[in-house]
Amino acid sequence: MDIEEEIRSLQLDSAEENNGVINPEDAKSEEVEKLDRMEEDSKDDVTLNSKEVQAESKDKEVSAPRDIETPDEMEEDNKKRHLNVVFIGHVDAGKSTTGGQILFLSGQVDDRTIQKYEKEAKDKSRESWYMAYIMDTNEEERVKGKTVEVGRAHFETETTRFTILDAPGHKSYVPNMISGASQADVGVLVISARKGEFETGYDRGGQTREHVQLAKTLGVSKLLVVVNKMDDPTVNWSKERYDEIELKMTPFLKSSGYNVKKDVQFLPISGLLGTNMKSRMDKSVCSWWNGPCLFEALDAIEVPLRDPKGPLRMPIIDKFKDMGTVVMGKVESGSVTEGDSLLVMPNKIQVKVVAVYCDENKVRRAGPGENLRVRLSGIDDEDILAGFVLSSVAKPIAAVTEFVAQLQILELLDNAIFTAGYKAVLHIHSVVEECEIVELLQQIDPKTKKPMKKKVLFVKNGAVVVCRVQVNNLICIEKFADFPQLGRFTLRTEGKTVAVGKVTELPSVSN
Ligand code: GTP
Ligand code: MG
Q: Which PANTHER family has this protein been placed in (predicted)?
């Protein structure tokens, strides 16, 4: 296999090619697995401590560490495609519970650990939260029953290796949710069917709405909408309730830019009981659902392929010192190979790739869509900030202080007007930067999508407007048309998302 083919196979291997391939993990006898788990279990506390030590990172790693494998041992595993899935939705919808249940059902958490969590949850008077404790590993999260940091865990189905990113639903932690969603291609939107809970999440100001709009802007191209808590006594697997939620959500998803037929799929589950998750619905529980279960639906998701041969773009979400400088991020275009010479932008520092880690495994190279840790030489960790981009030398990413964008105004604080001089915080891939709108150029008619003739001086909620945006420091971004993941952004102020946008023009001399 030549190198290019091999790189492609990291990304593109289809389900068919994997048929009949036995994953060494699957082939383990139950006995051996139990032993493995007991060993992991006893390491549990140590793992949690090391998580806290690494708390510099915004995300928290949930799965137990695996031994670092040699590149050769990785080949077989890498035949499966890899997808990042972000769990989003209103506070208490059941994101962590569903994420935890997935890990339990895929055999990564054993009964003994669950019993331990049950006891701990009970001691904290949060009996029903024990499944969520698999994902919510911090003391603060367990006491309050709310996710704060994005939880990160891994599991595999027949065709795919998944990284789960469990975002917080509480409105105070939207920036963490943005960071999780910006790393994902697929979203699982968790909605609580419990009486009153769907309504609060869907109301104006509810995070069901905000998360959907943010996810779309941040490049989450496919959504599974799981209608959760179907087991709750106020729902009891009612088809009417499920239909009501689907009916209300559909026009909203459309207006947020999702093609509901192609990119969205609804399904009912109980995250707490694990119903319709790994295996299809038992008819005695719910007679009317004939569709897929969650694992099947995740397996079947097709995402647009990124170009493994494109110029490298890896936005850096975090960095630390460990035998050199290690940067973390997701490859959005191109591939990283051990020994590569690359540029850290915008400060244009030339670096060499010493080692590449995909999840816990050392690999020789990795392609687009992968979450990596890359050890670099030639740079001090103090010269790197979150939001910098590891970039190809031949075609480096643009570094700019100004750009033109098309903005959709969502909801301004106190119904303020949006005009030149408006200041907000810009979130674009892993960049967080103060920005100012310096000029409104055109207002777009949302119906015809054409520019309106009249000169525009200010706009209000709901408007679509083209404007010039300035930042104080150089930032690395791309035009939405060239690299959607690096050209979509949100504007936030005082903890609220006020607008979402796309970069349409960059200054011609930008580097
Ligand atoms: P945040 O992280 O704070 O946004 O919440 P979350 O969406 O992660 O919700 P979490 O998983 O913490 O669950 C919140 C509450 O809902 C807990 O009490 C869960 O037991 C309960 N819950 C979650 N899923 C289900 C379900 O399928 N059925 C029932 N009956 N309760 C559920
Ligand atoms: Mg949670």
A: TRANSLATION FACTOR (PTHR23115)
